[in-house]
Amino acid sequence: KVSALSSSFDVTRVLTTIWKVIQWLLQHDPTRRPTAIQLAQSPLLPARVEDEYFKAALNVMSEHRIITCRV
């Protein structure tokens, strides 16, 4: 049985991303290794759901503020 997720899931892209993260973390020179913050903020890791929810909430609040200020 093939699900909808498996048909849209790009295994090659995921494995390439994982490989890039591993290579970055295993740099011989410690100054070239990412900090936890650098890794978390890199495009190599997916955004946290909470972060996306928070950003959306801020957008709604800022849009409401603009509308309220124009009245």
Explain how this protein is built.
There is one protein chain. This protein is mainly alpha-helical and 71 residues long. 68% of the residues lie in helices and 0% in strands. It is built from 4 helices and no strands. The mean pLDDT is 81.
Write a short abstract of this structure:
The protein is an all-alpha fold and 71 residues long. It contains four helices and no strands.
What attributes characterize this protein structure?
about 70 residues, mainly alpha, about 0% strand
What are the SSEs and their pairings?
Blueprint (H helix, E strand, L loop, with lengths): L3 H5 L2 H15 L10 H6 L7 H22 L1
Mean pLDDT: 81
Strand content: under 5%
Instruction: Using the CA coordinates, give the radius of gyration.
Output: 19 Å
The span between the termini is 56 Å
Indicate the structural class. mainly alpha
**Secondary-structure element order, as H and E?**
HHHH
